[in-house]
Amino acid sequence: MSTSHIGKRLFIAVGTPTANTAVAFAALTWVEVKGIGVMPQLGVSHAAIDVPDLASGFTRGLKGASTGNDSSMTVRQILADAGQVAIRGLADGGGQAGAGSIRILRPTGAIGSDGVPAGIIGDALQYATGFFHSFLEMQADVTTYEGFTCSFRQNAVTVNATASAAIS
Fold first, then answer.
1. Domains of the chain: which residue ranges?
2. Strands (E) located in 36-146
């Protein structure tokens, strides 16, 4: 049976962890981003290395260096949302100012009065570190809503973990 993405929640941290571990990510200060329509796609791809062998006449393929995925997220505008303000600051910043981290929560707790499920101990988490860039406001027309897109480039493999405390 497939599982829907509905209910997932996105949090960001300004800055990167000291190591690519669940413990180091948990030590960061996180803020939820409200109004997410499309989350970044986490993952890595690998370069292919061709190794020719003249004797056999066959070129063998090997897995080469990893590259973090660079994907877009779509957010509907919620004025004064701290998470949206933080993303814009990271994406618009120059140099290393865009460095940040992502935490995706798959909550299983009770649904609150805001219609959002609570995160509880044992819920699945995904962490990624990288940089935010390419902040673009939604193009205004009769079929769109106010909001923005921006991109996140992952700089290390995704860390999968479980929540060790409730996440509100």
1. 9-162
2. 36-38, 44-53, 58-68, 70-76, 99-106, 124-137
